[in-house]
From TrEMBL:
Pathway: Amino-acid biosynthesis; L-arginine biosynthesis; N(2)-acetyl-L-ornithine from L-glutamate: step 1/4; Amino-acid biosynthesis; L-arginine biosynthesis; L-ornithine and N-acetyl-L-glutamate from L-glutamate and N(2)-acetyl-L-ornithine (cyclic): step 1/1. The record marks 115-116 as: Involved in the stabilization of negative charge on the oxyanion by the formation of the oxyanion hole. Catalyzes two activities which are involved in the cyclic version of arginine biosynthesis: the synthesis of N-acetylglutamate from glutamate and acetyl-CoA as the acetyl donor, and of ornithine by transacetylation between N(2)-acetylornithine and glutamate. This is Arginine biosynthesis bifunctional protein ArgJ. It is an enzyme of class 2 (transferase). It catalyses: L-glutamate + acetyl-CoA = N-acetyl-L-glutamate + CoA + H(+); N(2)-acetyl-L-ornithine + L-glutamate = N-acetyl-L-glutamate + L-ornithine.
Length: 399
């Protein structure tokens, strides 16, 4: 398989893309409105929240993906435009028109995303003024990843290059997410741009598959948002030989896209509201991949596990309890390792130095490995600890 490498860059690094951001006064001072633009209409794939109270931008976003093409994505933070009725939908359509007029593109090729407080209408005078400030030529591409943030503490972006079809193809990603994170998807917005040439149905198929083992394997607090969206835009300007299924280029592209999604997903987990530690749980020896992934996700999502790790308490019984709650089969022979220390073998406790393991649990990255001895399949999930700060942030989020 073709090797790929990580490079420095922004969401506008692939050929034919630009990005910009501005302060539209939705927040007090910070950037709060951003746009991604392609020189030409790009194949667009998308995956959206499973929350049955989907925000207005999600409803319109599904229409965008059904159409197969996108040339711009406009994103605002501070206000989610969720549970806003017909006025909310009207405002999404108005935003599409404003972007289309500003950049001389087709309104039906404009994707709209929002994140922030639920139940508030967008102040369209501010949105319109903000859009008027955005530029396609002199864009502030590095500002886009900042403009989409809410309670996030850090920007989350990554760029890779890979040789495909005789050309260098670039894939860039940026995302936001810190709280209300429990995909099938969560308050998470993700945007991926690439200059690869690939047909929209194949791009959608690949995205739908890699989402399952990346973004859908993170959890911060067990709550699924109304606004989750991941878009991939592929404009073909790298001029590579078109990627088709069953080829080495297909495998390489899928691998790079999965890597981009995994890197971004882990950045979200590490930046969970109030988090001090990234937790990775790997489950092996399951009858199938889905069972392994669901068990791993339940462990990392357990409030008891998360609080124990926050307190550096090597209470492995909480992990075993989490396994038993969701495993759809008997698990009589479990092997459990925490931070490299074996604590359970053949479902029997092993002597270990609790003081030493407690010190290891103070490290910023925690790894839990579970062997179920019930099959050949595996899965991994990522999350974070549950801290006093998480309660403080969410007790005061709206006020």
């Amino acid at each position: 398989m073709t090797k790929f490498k990580q490079i420095n860059g922004t969401i506008a690094s692939p050929k034919g893309f630009t990005a910009d951001a501005t302060h539209a006064e939705l927040k007090f001072q910070k950037l709060d409105l951003g746009v991604i633009l392609s020189q030409v209409p790009a194949a667009v794939a998308g995956v959206f929240t499973t929350n049955k109270v989907a925000a207005a931008p999600v409803l319109v976003g599904k229409e965008l993906v059904a159409g197969g093409l996108a040339q711009a994505i406009i994103v605002n933070s501070a206000i989610a435009n969720a549970v806003t009725g017909e006025e909310g939908l009207t405002n999404v359509k108005k935003t599409q028109r404003l972007v289309a007029e500003k950049f001389d593109i087709d309104a039906k090729h404009v994707g709209v995303c929002s994140t922030g407080v639920i139940g508030k209408q967008l102040p369209m005078d501010k949105i319109a003024l903000g859009i008027s400030k955005l530029s396609a030529e002199n864009g502030h591409a590095t500002g886009f990843s900042e403009a989409i943030l809410t309670t996030d503490l850090v920007k989350k972006e990554v760029v890779y290059e890979v040789e495909l079809g005789g050309q260098t193809v670039t894939i860039a990603g940026v995302c936001k997410g810190s709280g209300m994170i429990h995909p099938n998807m969560a308050t998470m917005l993700g945007f991926i741009t690439t200059d690869a040439k690939i047909a929209q149905p194949l791009l959608q198929s690949i995205l739908s598959e890699v989402i399952e083992t990346t973004f859908n394997q993170i959890t911060v607090d067990g709550d699924t948002s109304t606004n989750d969206t991941v878009y991939v835009l592929a404009n073909g300007l790298a001029e590579n030989t078109e990627i088709v299924a069953g080829t080495e280029d297909f495998d390489s592209f899928k691998s790079v896209l999965a890597t981009v999604c995994q890197v971004l997903a882990k950045k979200i987990a590490a930046d969970g509201e109030g988090a001090t530690k990234l937790i990775e749980v790997s489950v092996s020896g399951a009858p199938n991949d889905l069972d392994a992934r669901m068990i791993a996700k339940h462990i990392v999502g357990s409030s008891l596990v998360k609080t124990a790790i926050f307190g550096a308490d090597p209470n492995w019984g909480r992990i075993i309890s989490a396994i038993g709650q969701v495993a759809p089969f008997e698990v009589p022979d479990i092997e459990l390792t925490i931070q490299g220390d074996l604590v359970l073998l053949h479902s029997t406790p092993v002597d270990f130095d609790q003081a030493v393991l407690s010190e290891k649990l103070k490290e910023p990255s925690i790894v839990v490995q579970v062997e179920l001895n019930q099959g050949e399949h595996s899965g991994t999930a990522w999350g974070c600890d549950l801290t006093y700060k998480y309660v403080e942030i969410n007790a005061l989020y709206h006020s």
